[in-house]
Amino acid sequence: MMNFDIRDILLTIPGILIGFSFHEYAHAQVAVWLGDDTPKHQGRLTLSPMAHIDPIGFLMIVIARFGWAKPVEVNPFNFKNRRRDDILVSLAGPVMNLFLAVFFLLIMKAFTFVPSSMISDSLFNTIMEVFDNTVWMNIVLFVFNLLPVPPLDGSHILFGLLNLKEKPIYDQIHSAGRIILMMMIISRTTGNIIGPPIGMIYGQLVGMFF
């Protein structure tokens, strides 16, 4: 049975919006840099959550801790080097999430130097909790999206490195991957796989700043 803590949900929402929006924006921006204007024409070259948030996916991650944003569409035929550039676009989203985790840890560290006379303890703790949730959410997105299971970024990276995208079997693997990923999530296998690396990365990063 799910335990809905309204305060916890509200403190998590900023991290979800930031993580999803910056993740998808990174895909879009790198695609444009590499020669594909498809994301630009579809209005995805923005940090506005309205352009990237899928209402159902957002609701699901808030309630069930699993959700999704609107995937950025690209046309690899516009890339100069299709194989290499597709991998770079796929890497952009997770790398952005890792960057955001570090960035918000820096903000948290800087915030500790704010004089106590300028802010109440309760407000300070609430702000730090929002920042901490944002760090955690971005690490989750970083690790989860690197899983080599379609349609996640990790699968695009792996299939690109193995040069499987040009093979007839790719479509079969991609279709089966969606079912496999859903079964992994329902059975909580995904959580068991990504939980340890998420905890390790979070612990290592926090240890660098605090």
UniProtKB/TrEMBL annotation:
Protein name (Swiss-Prot/TrEMBL): Zn-dependent protease
What is an example of a GO molecular function annotated in this UniProt entry?
metal ion binding
UniProt key word Protein biosynthesis: no
Q: Which InterPro entries match?
A: Metallopeptidase_M50B (IPR052348), Peptidase_M50 (IPR008915), Rip2-like (IPR044537)
Q: Which UniProt keywords apply?
A: Cell membrane, Hydrolase, Membrane, Metal-binding, Metalloprotease, Protease, Transmembrane, Transmembrane helix, Zinc
Q: Which GO terms describe its biological process?
A: proteolysis
Its record classes its membrane topology as: Multi-pass membrane protein
The prosthetic group or cofactor this protein requires is: Zn(2+)
Q: Can you give the residue ranges of the Peptidase M50 domain?
A: 121-185
Provide the species name: Anaerosolibacter carboniphilus
